[in-house]
């Protein structure tokens, strides 16, 4: 039986070449699934490898755009046989199964999980546009501006890593995705605490607390990635750790927004609580693990889709918040100045008397 993948794949291009260069590091096989153990799948891969990959048997050339994304002959056979096996199972009334711990996605432009890549790029653009609005509308004198900008940078970096990982799933790209997401989530908790306790204000006590909080969060992140990298690559632990940190982050902003809403009575003040509910609802999609619709749209990609709008709305919330707080800081500074002037006037009057 001769198997050629050229008629089983979709047209491809050179997109995402630069980001995929990282994928050559630390290559390791993925975990086994039911599909890997199916006799028909194994036979298909064996025949395909013999007919297409044997250097002494006129091997089938791999298209340039696939080679640029590090597709090897063996991986081309594996991909083709996944879909041949899946098609036959569906035609015989059997369920779709996973291969190597993942659903059999349809490749688009050489990209393994096209919708996850697309929605990751959407999240990146949300943070990039938010950063632009911050720089344009938030005064450089506002103490929290730097923290908001760093939050945007962490967000952009994490979604770049997510795009790379979903383009080509290797050990190195998986680590980039996990470490980037962990850093982004942890920084979210870090700067939320800074904002709620106003650790950004230049008082001796606040500066001391800020230094301790910074060291603690940095140590927490180093311990997190060290455990995953050097001790055990544990998916359950990673998910649990990110979930706990994310919940603390969400709780901080929920309490803060409720207090701000009671103080101002403005609708924008309650946005964080609404966004937290939105994100929690989107996160629940991760529990609905189902075979990808049209071979490309799965629960994980929908989770990425669900986080775009909250990111956009978050930056819209930050703008009125900074305006409100800038007004408070200005009024506070004038009150301090008036008090100082009054004290000087009283002191001068006493001296003259």
Automatic annotation (TrEMBL):
<dbReference type="GO" id="GO:0006506">
    <property type="term" value="P:GPI anchor biosynthetic process"/>
</dbReference>
<feature type="transmembrane region" description="Helical">
    <location>
        <begin position="239"/>
        <end position="256"/>
    </location>
</feature>
<comment type="similarity">
    <text>Belongs to the PGAP3 family.</text>
</comment>
<feature type="transmembrane region" description="Helical">
    <location>
        <begin position="300"/>
        <end position="319"/>
    </location>
</feature>
<keyword id="KW-0472">Membrane</keyword>
<protein>
    <recommendedName>
        <fullName>Post-GPI attachment to proteins factor 3</fullName>
    </recommendedName>
</protein>
<dbReference type="GO" id="GO:0016788">
    <property type="term" value="F:hydrolase activity, acting on ester bonds"/>
</dbReference>
<keyword id="KW-0732">Signal</keyword>
<dbReference type="InterPro" id="IPR007217">
    <property type="entry name" value="Per1-like"/>
</dbReference>
<feature type="transmembrane region" description="Helical">
    <location>
        <begin position="105"/>
        <end position="126"/>
    </location>
</feature>
<feature type="transmembrane region" description="Helical">
    <location>
        <begin position="146"/>
        <end position="166"/>
    </location>
</feature>
<keyword id="KW-1133">Transmembrane helix</keyword>
<comment type="function">
    <text>Involved in the lipid remodeling steps of GPI-anchor maturation.</text>
</comment>
<keyword id="KW-0812">Transmembrane</keyword>
<dbReference type="GO" id="GO:0005789">
    <property type="term" value="C:endoplasmic reticulum membrane"/>
</dbReference>
<feature type="transmembrane region" description="Helical">
    <location>
        <begin position="209"/>
        <end position="227"/>
    </location>
</feature>
<keyword id="KW-0256">Endoplasmic reticulum</keyword>
<keyword id="KW-0337">GPI-anchor biosynthesis</keyword>
<feature type="transmembrane region" description="Helical">
    <location>
        <begin position="268"/>
        <end position="288"/>
    </location>
</feature>
<feature type="transmembrane region" description="Helical">
    <location>
        <begin position="178"/>
        <end position="197"/>
    </location>
</feature>
<dbReference type="Pfam" id="PF04080">
    <property type="entry name" value="Per1"/>
</dbReference>
<feature type="signal peptide">
    <location>
        <begin position="1"/>
        <end position="32"/>
    </location>
</feature>
